[in-house]
């Protein structure tokens, strides 16, 4: 539940009111003035987080802290650049067969597990097969085309596919952590394997000490294949909330806040010379979806009327404090320039046009309910703005702020008129649009059933290159736009705060990856 702001604590943090800042576990007091003014050291980089590690098994862990810690311990085949393109990591190259029915990945030969055994094709095959057989985690839903994986040699893996799927390599390459077969295969169930002690890892850092509720200490691995990090030790410090992290950053206790800053906090810290803000584009978007199986929302004119009854610019400037961009009402956002459609235009806020469309649809005194997660501070800020703007078009929207589990239950059951929410990571349009808008799609909350759209998404998924997939997926996005199967409000610009004493971070899109990804932390160094 990011961006929860306690006004009093924030005011204290931002105005410099004297306060007792949290201390390093095991020590007393806060840093002295000399310590606060001391230059950064390559010996240690300390990162604030607001949660403990829940699961040390990287194949099932899904909290932010889980991901940050385990991503430094377990390699992926690929990493990602700032534009979302896959880059080599454990894999050196990858390709599809001409018929698209198989794919091959070649691996580095210089990476080792911490017990000395080499990282090999057998480990890759084991990891992907375990996920396929036990059907758990996000990766399982992204590799449905996989028939069988085999180790051709210690450094080559061949994936046999049941159908051509140009999304497969990107999905398995970036999202699947590789785990040591000789350790994980001893567990009756890989999904249930806790992996909570005696870690055998192969990342840039190894986990050496855990003090739950306090800190997680990770030491650098010497002679790490892809390149030895500058910083010797990374420490994750646990704090009760973002506001306490801000105090710790300003007092010199930590070097970075891992959590994304609330927009209001980012706006206040923007002019602090001791703190740098790294802006990170989102791989997802905030949106409104209309239940197309409920009358009168099954009429495209009603959905278009609703789209014209939203003041998008006001939401971005007021609720998000300007830390958001227009997606031009398209599900192909500017964050992924290889797919973005420059011809797409945002729906204009036009209450009179809304009234006209409703009249054409024979609708008067339209009343609808809108569900949202009341714990999401951003949506809690703009939900009333949606309601108030709709009033100008003669539309009554009843807000239903719900406890998160109730909200998720209603969403999963498609029990709503309007759903207000956000998707965090939509990094592969052919794959993602299949999940979200294809008939029967796992997250097709709007219950879209459009044969032409299905055909276009299928065509894009069969394409083996971005160039081949671009045209059908852009056409699919135009249908989604024109039919208002999704009303995209904005693409958020996230802010990560760190001490000006540091430099060299490599940003990746999305709040999860940000500058806490393995490539970024490996390249971080003291400024100057």
From TrEMBL:
SUPFAM superfamilies registered for this protein in UniProt: Periplasmic binding protein-like II
Name this protein carries in UniProt: ABC transporter substrate-binding protein
Positions of the Solute-binding protein family domain: 87-438
Signal peptide: 1-21
CDD domains reported in the protein's UniProt record: PBP2_NikA_DppA_OppA_like (cd00995)
Keyword Transport: yes
Keyword Signal: yes
InterPro entries xrefs: Peptide/Ni-bd, SBP_5, SBP_5_CS, SBP_5_dom
Main subcellular location of this protein, as a coarse class: membrane
Membrane-related topology note: Lipid-anchor
Subcellular location: Cell membrane
Gene3D superfamilies reported for this sequence: Dipeptide-binding Protein, Domain 1, Dipeptide-binding Protein, Domain 3, Periplasmic binding protein-like II
PROSITE patterns for this protein: PROKAR_LIPOPROTEIN (PS51257), SBP_BACTERIAL_5 (PS01040)
Keyword terms of this UniProt record: Signal, Transport
Family recorded in the similarity comment: Belongs to the bacterial solute-binding protein 5 family.
